[in-house]
Design a protein that fits this description.
The chain is mainly alpha-helical and 228 residues long. The protein has helices at residues 2-13, 15-30, 37-55, 60-77, 101-109, 112-116, 118-126, 134-157, 162-167, 169-192, 196-224; strands spanning 82-88, 91-96. The longest helix is centred in the last third of the chain and has 29 residues, at 196-224.
Length: 228
């Protein structure tokens, strides 16, 4: 109970970080030329998955497999062990030797299929002269996998998953929001020649500005409503 209350308080105090990160993300993305051929290919990938999801099928098993696999990877990164692993189209379950908020929430903010495409992209870039236009195929697949992650994750979150409930709703949503923006920007930076370091610095500056604004308003309210 105390741990959930603490996470809720952390979630409240982290809201300026979410706003600052969102603002930095928007400013960088809006700076990408609308005439960029790369951006158009990415958009086509996003649209292709949305049409597939709405008109053909929801690839639930593929999502569950990636979701539970991310739990496994997060467990290994935290030095834990996987005791059992089970995946079905209707859901999955992973039993681990340890747990924490990163293990519980990482599948919601790490688009695992997009991340797995990373090594393929760099390999294609190295061989681009031998396989012209193959990197564009990769960028299209990036769009497909990102749309897949966002659409399926949003559907799962609405079901109030035990992972999210256990970590606290507000804390989870803030972490998922910020985590998704950071991971997506890490993917976008090499695609559109953006600076990931610049994004992090801008997010930090925006967040600090919001904290100063909130602190100033609170201080002004206290000083103008003194009861002593």
């Amino acid at each position: 109970m105390f741990a959930k209350l603490l996470k809720t308080l952390i979630g409240i105090f982290a809201i300026p970080v979410a706003i600052g990160t969102g603002r930095a993300f928007y400013l960088l993305i809006s700076g990408i030329s609308v005439f960029s051929g790369t951006l158009h290919v990415l958009e086509r990938g996003l649209l292709a998955y949305l049409l597939f999801h709405v008109l053909i099928m929801r690839p639930a098993y593929i999502y569950v497999l990636g979701h539970e696999t991310m739990h496994v990877i997060a467990t290994w990164l935290c030095g834990g062990k996987v005791i059992s692993f089970n995946v079905t189209p209707s859901g999955g379950n992973v039993v681990t030797s340890k747990t924490n908020f990163f293990i519980e929430l990482s599948p919601y903010f790490v688009p695992i299929y997009t991340v797995l495409l990373g090594p393929v992209y760099f390999a294609l870039r190295a061989m681009d002269k031998q396989f012209p236009h193959m990197s564009l195929v990769f960028i299209f697949l990036i769009g497909v996998t990102l749309a897949f992650h966002f659409v399926m994750t949003s559907e799962v979150i609405r079901l109030r998953q035990p992972d999210i409930v256990k970590s606290g709703l507000l804390f989870s949503l803030v972490l998922i929001f910020v985590g998704n923006l950071v991971i997506v920007m890490a993917v976008f930076c090499p695609l559109f020649d953006l600076s990931f370091t610049g994004f992090i610095k801008k997010a930090a500056l925006n967040s600090a500005e919001i904290y100063r604004l909130v602190y100033g308003n609170v201080l002004e309210f206290v000083n103008t409503n003194k009861i002593w």
